[in-house]
Design brief:
The complex is a heterodimer of chains A (about 110) and B (about 110). Chain A has no helices and 11 strands. Chain A has about 110 residues and is mainly β. In chain A, the strands form 2 sheets. In chain A, strands 2, 4, 5, 6, 9, 10 and 11 form a 7-stranded mixed sheet that branches. Chain A has a 4-stranded antiparallel sheet with strand order 1-3-8-7, with no helix packed on it. Classes of the chains: A mainly beta (about 110), B mainly beta (about 110).
């Protein structure tokens, strides 16, 4: 199965800063259609899990433009520019290229 | 507005069964694959099952294969997860998801004697 590694368990950030969360896959997530099957999710306590990014770089409807997905092959990044207090959450990557679909272990974004 | 409401969770003894339901609204249910995902207390996320639009294809990871069954009723906009032979390691919050873009609030399942 494809393993996704989010090396940082926690990242500390101040409001207004930029932060990057990385996700490394054990094999390429590029499919023959030219798309990468890598998504990013946000979990905040008491809220539904929110899809932020799909196909590595496409923002889901309604997601603020400060959330930016990038990367290709096996290396992917979720960047949050101008971090807001409401961005303090857990962030997970998910691959849906091959079953079993697998998630990264999660990165907790915390305030300095 | 997309809404997914899971029900059917609770406390169950090891070896027993439980059936979860997820009622969907706000989108054309019959056009989307549906998923179940779970999260053990304080742990990460695990994909549990998928079902295609007409219910003819289903998928499971090895951890639940042979014990869990996903199904759907497109007339009722509902997806189900039948869980048999439950184990303590199945204790988790179970989330229903529309494709990979919308998730429900989740329902807690506790397997304990």
């Amino acid at each position: 199965q494809i393993t996704l590694t989010q090396q940082a368990e926690s990242l500390w950030v101040s409001p207004g800063e930029k932060v990057s969360i990385t996700c490394r896959a054990s094999q390429s997530l590029l499919y023959t259609d030219g798309k990468h099957y890598l998504s990013w999710y946000q979990q905040r306590p008491g809220q539904t899990t929110k899809a932020l990014i799909y196909h590595a770089s496409i923002r889901t409807d309604g997601v603020p433009t400060r959330f930016i997905g990038s990367g290709s092959g096996t290396e992917f990044t979720l960047s949050i520019e101008d971090v807001q207090p409401e961005d303090i959450a857990l962030y997970y990557c998910l691959q849906t290229l091959k079953k079993p679909y697998t998630f990264g272990a999660g990165t907790k974004l915390e305030l300095k | 507005e997309v809404q997914l409401v899971e029900t059917g969770g609770g406390l169950v003894q090891p070896g027993r069964s439980l059936k979860l339901s997820c009622v969907a609204s706000g989108f054309t249910f019959s056009s989307y694959w549906m998923y179940w995902i779970r999260q053990a207390p304080g742990k990460g996320l695990e994909w549990v099952s998928s079902i295609n639009t007409d219910g003819g294809s289903t998928y499971y990871p090895d951890s639940v294969k042979g014990r869990f069954t996903i199904s759907r009723d497109n007339a009722e906009n509902t997806v189900y997860l039948q869980m048999n032979s439950l184990r303590s390691e199945d204790t988790a919050t179970y989330y229903c998801a529309k494709g990979t873009d919308y998730w429900g609030q989740g329902v807690m399942v506790t397997v304990s004697s």
